[in-house]
Amino acid sequence: MANHELEFSTFPSGQFIDLMPIQYGRERCEPGHAFGPARRSHYLFHYVIAGRGTLMAEDDAGGRTDHHVMGGEGFLIFPDQVNTYVADLADPWEYVWVEFEGLRVKESLELVGLTRSAPIYRARSTELRDQMAEQMRFLVTHRDASPLELVGHTFLFLDLLLRSVEQPAESERRQADLHVQAAVEFIKQHYGDDVSVEDIARHAGLNRSYFGKVFKAATGRSPQQYLIGYRMTKAAELLKVTTLSVGEVGRAVGYPNQLHFSRAFKGVHGMSPRAWRQLSAAAQLPNS
Predict the structure, then answer these.
(1) Which comes out higher in pLDDT, residue 260 or 20?
(2) What angle do CA 175, 219, 239 make, to 5 degrees?
(3) What is the spatial distance between Cα 132 and Cα 7, in angstroms, rounded to a whole number?
């Protein structure tokens, strides 16, 4: 029977926006060794070096799914997901892991198909998979390296993880999708502020001209049209569920000038904010 071995370290404290490394390690398990049921606060990826095991985890529907994993594959545990994983009795697994979080991690993982219902990593490129595994091993075997070096290798790990499972022909489109998703998220968070298309493009990491083309190709609307549409949707909600004045609603969605707000609202909804509120109120009256 193989000896049970465990190596474990935490990352030095630091603030990294796109990717925040939390911890990393390696474990060679005894037959039947189990962890869980438990919940994690962050994403936790295991790559199985050798052997077999089973992941039992909540899926998107709230049920439990059992996933059988073998050497050369991996599994991803999601934040707040109840999970248990167990080493095979006859051929227990050995794995390396990295725990991480980050601003765009969720979108990146979803774009390559890793979800709560599909958490198993199976590489399309064995070459990139092996390079990813080497980055994970580096963390475990170089725990005395500088914090920046460790963080750098963690970025390489995530890059190789994503590239090893996506279709090469889709790489450029997926990268564009990430920029668009970042822009949409920025609009949702800042629609009430004085933001411009230039601000949105800068947040998405693209120049304004190219950003406009990418955004329209993905959404069918220009960034300006999307921003106005989102603001007017929020304005309609406020007019329906609050007693705020038209001017107050306009300021809440980024229009300090009430006349400009009313024109924008009519351009989207076909009527003035006041008329829309009256129509909405009449629609909610009980039938006589």
Answers:
(1) 260
(2) 130
(3) 19
Quick one: tokens of 138?
């580096």
Condensed to tens digits (0 to 9), the pLDDT of residues 57-96 reads 988 888 888 999 999 999 999 999 999 999 999 999 999 9
- d(CA 151, CA 157) in angstroms, rounded, equals 10
According to CATH, the topology of domain 5-166 is Jelly Rolls (2.60.120)
Tell me the domain boundaries of the chain.
5-166, 169-288
**CA-CA distance, 268 to 229, in Å (whole number)?**
7
Angle at 77 between CA 76 and CA 81, to 5 degrees: 150
Q: At the top level of CATH, which class does the domain 169-288 belong to?
A: mainly alpha
Whole-angstrom distance, CA of residue 159 vs CA of residue 164: 8
> Please, are residues 52 and 71 in contact by the beta-carbon 8 Å criterion?
yes
